[in-house]
Design a protein that fits this description.
Largest sheet: 5 strands, mixed, barrel
Number of helices: 4
CATH class of one domain: Mainly Beta
Distance between the termini: 82 Å
Helix content: 40-55%
Strand order of the largest sheet: 1-2-3-5-4
Strand content: 25-35%
CATH architecture of one domain: Beta Barrel
Length: 136
């Protein structure tokens, strides 16, 4: 009798026990893999960017860049306007360690510098957060 109640109960018990045991054995491997992926993503998001420091308001409004706009950009940055770095044709909002970096970056307005930090995005806005100026 292939489908006897006694045999079905044994197979059901076996299947439940085997599935539960496999879950217990494999779960540490899953967590280890997830931690490794998180570490790899964090390392991959660390980036060093070299580019021009711009005030994001004038850049977004009328593509203002370069030495011609440096004095205006420095004024806007000192006044608290958002700061960005133009690197390889892309624009990144620059954020320090959970605070603006305007005081440190105003003197570099219109100039090329190197920053390092963590690449991130929020609401479609690319950012370099926890940014630091790389001294050469």
């Amino acid at each position: 009798m292939l489908y006897s109640p006694d045999r079905t109960a044994k197979w059901l018990k076996f299947t439940v026990v085997a599935s539960f045991s496999a879950g217990l054995v494999l779960s540490p491997l899953t967590f280890a893999h997830e931690e490794h992926e998180k570490e790899a993503l964090a390392a991959a998001s660390e980036k060093t960017l070299t580019g021009e420091i711009v005030d994001l308001m004038c850049y977004a409004d009328h593509n203002a860049t370069g030495e011609k706009h440096a004095k205006c950009a420095a004024t806007c940055i000192k006044g608290g306007g958002p700061v960005a770095i133009l690197s390889d044709g892309k624009t990144y909002l620059v954020v320090g360690d959970h605070k603006p970096m305007n005081d440190q970056l105003a003197e570099y307005a219109g100039k090329t510098i190197t920053l390092k930090g963590k690449l991130a995005s929020n609401g479609g806005i690319p950012m370099l957060e926890n940014a630091e100026i790389v001294k050469k």
